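user:
I keep going back and forth on a fold encoding question. Separate attempts, laid side by side, tell us more than any discussion would. Would you put together a sequence-and-structure record for a protein of your own picking? Write it directly below this note and I will take it from there.

assistant:
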Amino acid sequence: MAGVRERQGQLVFGLDIGTRSIVGTVGYLDGGSFHVLAQRSREHETRAMLDGQIHDIGKVGETIAKVRSGLEEDLNRSLTEVCIAAAGRVLRTVTTYVELNFETDREITEEDIYSLSTMGVEKAYEEFQGGGDSEMKFYCVGYTPMRYYMNGYQIGNLEGHKAKNIAIDLIATFLPDDVVDGLYKAVELAGLKVANLTLEPIAAIQVAIPEKYRMLNMALVDVGAGTSDICITKEGTITAYGMIPVAGDSLTDILVQHCLVDFETAEQIKRGAGCKEIIEYVDIMGLPQTISAKEVLSLLGPSVEKMTKMVADGIRELNGEKPVSAVFVVGGGGMIPGYTESLAAELGIVKERVAIRGQEVMQNISFELEDARRDSMMVTPIGICLSYYEQSNNFIFMEFNGVRIKLYDNGKLTVADAAMQSQFPNDDLFPKRGEALTFNVNGKNRIVRGYLGEAAVVKVNDVSADMYTQVYNGSRIEVTASTAGEAASMELGKLPELSEQLHIFVNGVKINLPKTATVNGGRENEFYMIKEDDDIQIHNFYSVEEVAGLLDVPLGNRIMVNDTPAKADTKVYEAFTISWSLEQEQKAQEGGEEEEDEKSGDAGSSASEVSEAVESSAGVANEDSGKPAIQSEEIQGAAPKTENAEIIVIVNRQAVTLSGKSAYVYVDVFDYIDFDLTKSAGRTIVTTLNGRPAEYMEALNDGDIIEIYWKERLNK
């Protein structure tokens, strides 16, 4: 046997930490057979565990250490890592579906299947945490693939097939933090590190129900001292897990009261009832006593019936309110005479289909030690070892801002994961923006975002890091919260709309005028700092009088806009033409012929003076008065009357160029779009300009937004 051990290298150490006893098994997997090299078991000296949960971590740690020491002595080698299983007290399950896509068909590897399972566990974990049905903190302690899919079709084993898409139905199990944490601490006290954690029924089914039997609708019941764990199989997979918080100890407590003995003595009486007709014992008064096995079973009968009824109800609930075809029972609590018969009666199936499973299910287990124990008590410890090969499911511990935390280890944990587990505010991880600035421009909401602050300062083991730095068991993480940036601010002149210009013609000179704006009804210059909820209106026109004022030239008579008589307050839009003459020109026309000739010459001079004044004013800003800068362009000949102005408007979200006129009104658009006004079919036409109802003779400007469409009339 020593030679076999030397050839195998790393061994698997499985530990079944039960309510009444701790059973340790060490072995290795070779092909399809698991070789058991050593076994040790030890009962708790006190009731350090109740209902599957550790109550005295120190005492349990001491017992684990004694089991470990005995195994090391048998093997002549040290053991540092151990696989454990948790009982299903307050068990919760989540069933989920995930899929993994590849760019092209490729051969599926074992690593792909592992990645798919990991994705499923992570999704189940997220779904469970999102449920928020309890204030308790839960952890995933095991998972089982239910079905695999390849390109949308169910398949038994993905490995080796070529596929572009693979998927999995997976059931994950969760237990409260205190159950998991107690197990880890007790193991650490014994000088061991947890290599894998699983659930007791998951471990037991590895041995008790081989895969070839899982096509049948069966149940596995692991009856321990404190809990009865249930597992359901159907259609080749495990479909559900459950737990009943009643098991063998509830029967022992009855004998404690009836026989007036301590718990250990009562346990011996219960076990003796299965193999002796008369059991001898000493009560608490020190008096020798006897009790028959028949009397023991009569005392325990009502409790056995109550316990099996609870288990039967649990099986039906997990199996869709239907009984299963057969039940396998493992664990010491189920070995009490009458248990299997009572469970069969409660389920309504023949008693032969409820059986204790022990040596008969260990066909693939090779015991390489003398006097090996092969009964139902060994099913779960060996299954714990086998679970190590099926899945790696572990928790790691680290320190976050001085607090010890525990995380489910998926192999790619980052600082962000640790921060989330510590409930560190997410807003304090990443740079925060200062307060936003909101206001209206031409009736539409506008938001300017605040400035970003400084990111959180992250250190891992005193080395600078970031939120995506990977962390491991024992990492020390320090995170200083991020800061908020300055509030948003904006000058009026920085609005994109005010970067555009109006282009008009004044007495033959092309003038470029900046657009202007009013804020809350009052005119403001470009340096005005916009405030929260300001109402800003951008103006795309000037009055004739304002144009003259900007040019710093006198406004005379005979004002013409687009060759049409106009007034000082007439609005001037993009590409409009303006002209006027000075006052003495009009007087010359009112005098005699001689004077008229003379004054006509003067009038010509006056018109020339206006043009010269316009040219000299172009490009000069009156800084003292706050007037905007203007620009001009010399035009050869007379002011264009003409067919040379061109603007672009947006009609029904399409850009349309209007050309051939000096100015345009709304109705001109119909000459450039495909819209048949004769096809109303009982509908009404809708025409809008910049989001409001339009008038057909309303002037159009470059960049205007137009919508034209038919709308059904409302029935009266």
